[in-house]
Amino acid sequence: MKAKVLLSLILLCGGLAVPSARAEDAAPAAAPVPAACELPSYLLTSESQLPKVAGAVKAGKPLEILVIGSRSTTIPSSESSSYPARMEAVLKEKLPPAETVHVSVELQSKKTAEEAAGTFVKLMEAKTPTLVIWQTGTVDAIRSVDPDDFRGAVAEGVVALQNAGADVVLMNLQYSPRTESMISAPPYLDNMRVVAQEHDVPLFDRFAMMRQWNDQGQFDLFSPSRGPELAKQVHDCIGRALAQFVIGAAHLGPAEQQN
Amino acid sequence: MTIADQVTGSTIAGTAGAKPADAKPRVAAPAITLPAIGERELRLDLFRGLALWLIFIDHLPPNLLTWFTIRNYGFSDATEIFIFISGYTAAFVYGRAMLENGFVVATARILRRVWQIYVAHVFLFTIFLAEISYVATSFENPLYTEEMGIMDFLKQPDITIVQALLLRFRPVNMDVLPLYIVLMLALPLILWSMKWKPDVTLALSALLYAATWEFDLYFSAYPNGFWAFNPLAWQLLFVFGAWCALGGARRMSRILASPVTMWISIAYLVAAFYVTLTWYVPQLSQFMPKRLEQWMYPIDKTDLDVLRFTHFLALSALTVRFLPREWPGLKSPWLRPLILCGQHSLEIFCLGVFLAFAGHFILAEVSGGPAMHALISLSGILIMWGVAWVISWYKRVADKSGAKTKNAVGNADLAGGG
């Protein structure tokens, strides 16, 4: 429904219909992607690039990915179904068989962006990854940290990661409709977008994706269910989307690789 | 006290409709001018009612109706309308009280109103506590273990509740009333200063706004952070509303009537609309100059970004131009529900926040898809209208049976609340 309203708005504007047509295209699905995971292509692409990931893969070097996250990075008691593990599996499937992909996870539970960023220098000395996926914002939103401070902290963290020689992808909050009336996400989403823009870093919009799935009825994110099934499916989709996002931003798609 | 009774007589310092002929000789006039008693600017009621509906819809999870709210088409949203009109009506009512009964009596009246708003806020907080406690005990989806951290404050109810009473702990969606309380507390000072020199007061207000941005002033909140609506910045809209009510609007009427103003406003609104569109259709953002984006973002709601304020000014300039106060449509039964809601703003505002909580709750318990969403939004609006009608009816009956001594000036409901 929303898409329709938007579309008519755009048509009203006139002349702008072309980009909207692109929005309607579903993401090209290479591997058998579960129908539930489908997303519009704009959520899976980024203008910013990942040159170091591209370089490592082209040179045949191992791809070391570090996910810095929080409790929503994992599913309690089923690590192997969480999105970092799913992303690793999909990347291995899609990249050339000779490519070694290794994903490690660093959990910074209950830490704000500022507190997490403080650990980055040491962390990067120990791990030296090619790509860091930094998922943050939830703890700051829960504690309603000053959005300006939050923006500063994220920017600082991104710079520290880049200085340590890694490509960076920022990942924002989960869409959590049940707590929407208690946690105010928008300021943190906006500020992460600003930092991503300023530092030319791809932003993986987890919030918009989950919202899309919920709105389209693929997942019922309101569900109070205690079982891990829903969480597993959502993480599977996020892992797939993330793998595709990384491949896209590093220009490692099948077309590019032939050159 | 029906609407029809009140539209008679119209010398109000109308926001724009005032023609040059209305301008009274201001030789011996006091610094501020007040319109005659008993009239009612229906446009204010209309737009405040609209703001209340939009705030209600914006507080619900996004659904079809959300696309009709103005925040999707520009920078400013219903909050700006609400605060501006609140400033306007408050100055209108209590400004008269101050001229007629003096500073002390007017201040006492204002404090009584502040108390009402405070009680309303505490009432809403209680409902919020009930909702969040329910969620904490019933919702255990492993996907959201992290988000459940928001419940941590339930572990220290003693501190949380006291902080809430001090207005320092404010859950999401409960920021408007504390802002309004602080603004109303400042109202005696604002009116006193307006009585002396309205333009200087407005300039001082703008100065405070600038200082807030320059020195990063804010109200701290509990457990950390700051007020989501910074009163030190938002006072500018409130004071501007008061200034308009006390004769400023009439003095501005020539500017408002000029075609230059109109075209600047239109150009700005179109530009703002395009920028907003890029948020929803990210493909469009490639046509946005990067330098402009870096300068513009983030558009700060907490401190009432200048872009938001000017967007509101542009919107209101066009509104007063194309919607004259004598517009017959204002009396049409179709707009009656909006006007009724706008006339009882404090009650309807609180009801709206409560209904938004209730709507969240129903949506969470009965997963119903977009149809259910739309149904909840619509029935919420119908309930708001129904309650506004009942309040009006009750006031009318009470006024008839009560002593006739009570005149329109003492009517808190004209003072607007919320």
TrEMBL record, chain A:
It holds the Pfam family NonGDSL. It comes from the Bacteria. The keyword NAD does not apply. GO terms for molecular function: hydrolase activity. Keywords: Hydrolase, Signal. Residues 1-23 form the signal peptide. The keyword Signal applies. Gene3D superfamilies: SGNH hydrolase. This is SGNH/GDSL hydrolase family protein.
UniProtKB/TrEMBL annotation, chain B:
The keyword Transmembrane helix applies. The chain crosses the membrane at residues 50-70, 82-105, 117-136, 176-193, 200-220, 232-249, 261-281, 306-324, 345-363, 375-394. The keyword Transmembrane applies. Keywords: Membrane, Transmembrane, Transmembrane helix. It holds the Pfam family OpgC_C. This is OpgC domain-containing protein. It comes from Bradyrhizobium campsiandrae. The lineage of its organism: Bacteria, Pseudomonadati, Pseudomonadota, Alphaproteobacteria, Hyphomicrobiales.
